[in-house]
Design goal:
By secondary structure, the protein is mainly alpha-helical. About 75% of the residues lie in helices and about 5% in strands.
């Protein structure tokens, strides 16, 4: 009987030990990550609010998704395999600060969180929090030219928007990312690339797909479709600026189509993606 009680008591003592170790690490790295947290806060609430304003929503919603899994985590057993992730995350954090690449430090913070979860609740606990951790990646602000994605999207938007404007009857001339219509020259800059529009859409549709019932395959299909649909919506908004310029002038066209219609277009795009999710779920139930 005493041996059985000792066996049952050991996991509690082990969890207490691992929790104390994790709390010590958390206190230490909180100080080390202050520059990273300041970098993210600056882009969320400061000068970069137009660029990454969806960041706070993603961060808090990822925490909510993790909170919903808290009862499942208790069943996990501590595992030292979480320690390599913690060490690797801290190493990446140090290298990113030395190289001046703060967004990599933001990624390392999520790796660190996963390592601490594995350290306390085991690898099974980390797997249960895999989606919230991956989803939180969207909260980390990226530089304008990260991985060359934005310059590529600028080229795509330049070609697609001028093609759409031509279909709508606009007479224009394009030279790279410079578009001339009715004597007015527009420069399609990185902020017009549709990248931020896309990331904001993903910040909404991905948790919706995660919470809605349905197969992973259909959720992946709808989530992937958000990429071309979001970029096409942005192209159409830019094309409408070109179409309206000869009639209303550059200032009115920019104000009406590129600013005021941006929010309704964003909402309609999200509702359309939700409709696709519902449609795929409906067909799945019928089959």
């Amino acid at each position: 009987m005493a041996r059985a009680q000792e066996t049952l008591a050991f996991p509690f003592r082990a969890r207490l030990l691992y929790s104390a170790l994790a709390a010590t690490l958390l206190a230490a790295v909180s100080w080390a990550y202050l520059p990273t947290l300041g970098f993210m806060a600056e882009h969320w609430f400061g000068d970069g609010i137009r660029n990454w304003s969806h960041g706070p929503f993603v961060a808090f919603f990822a925490l909510y998704l993790g909170w919903r899994k808290r009862r499942e985590l208790v069943a996990g057993a501590p595992n030292l395999w979480g320690l390599p992730f913690v060490v690797g995350a801290l190493a990446l954090h140090g290298l990113s600060l030395k190289a001046g690449i703060p967004y990599l430090s933001g990624y390392s913070l999520l790796v660190l969180a996963g390592g601490l979860v594995a350290l306390i609740y085991g690898l099974s606990g980390a797997r249960r929090l895999l989606f919230p951790l991956l989803y939180a990646l969207i909260a980390v602000p990226l530089p304008v030219n990260a991985w060359g994605v934005t310059p590529f999207l600028v080229q795509v938007q330049s070609e697609t928007s001028t093609w759409l404007a031509g279909l709508l009857g606009a007479s224009l001339l394009r030279d790279g990312s410079l578009v001339t219509v009715a004597g007015q020259t527009y420069h399609i800059v990185p902020l017009c690339s549709g990248f931020n529009f896309l990331m904001a859409q993903l910040s909404l549709i991905l948790p919706a797909l995660y919470l809605l019932p349905g197969s992973w395959a259909r959720s992946l299909l709808v989530g992937t479709s958000a990429i071309p649909i979001s970029l096409l919506t942005k192209s159409l908004l830019i094309a409408m600026v070109f179409v309206a310029t000869p009639w209303w002038g550059a200032d009115a066209a920019m104000s009406l189509y590129h600013v005021w219609l941006g929010y309704p277009a964003f909402a309609l795009t999200f509702l359309f993606l939700l409709w696709l999710a519902w449609l795929s779920r409906h067909r799945e139930l019928r089959t």
